[in-house]
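Memo to structure team: turn this sequence into structure tokens by end of day. - J.P.
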Amino acid sequence: MDGKLSAGLRGLLVISVLLVSACAGYSGSNLRPGVSTLPEVIASMGEPAMVWKNPDGSEQLAFPRGPAGTQTFMAHVGPDGKLQRIEAVLDMAHFNRVQAGMSKDEVLRVLGPSGSMWTQFYSRSNELAWSWLFCNSWNVQEFFDVMFDASTGIVRSTGLHPNLMGDIQPICSQ
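Reply from structure team:
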């Protein structure tokens, strides 16, 4: 009986360790700036949704965790192939960087791609809306919206709206 119990506990421990390590890789928290390499970043966080190569040889990689996830991580890798930093970008500080007059490419560099289910075209106003689901400072889900002129791809305006499911606004599980 003790052998079965200890084997069951060992199995539970192994599963727990695997789950914790999977969560660590989700945000890149298991990676170390200045030490971890680009292949290690991808092995830990998965394939990036977008990659930008900078003139100096450095790269920026976007890891959105949607459509139900509430965060996007940007990994910055230096020209030496080593991780410089990882930042969570779905927050008010990054949203405030998005301004009228910016291009779609500039917005993507700040926030990464919005989910396809959060993209909408409004023909009457000739506007394209991109939205990002995030956790606000009250720990409830909300959307950050960017409205583009559909013809030019230039930001017209930004805003916030609650993520309402029926009569309730979902609480973040983070």
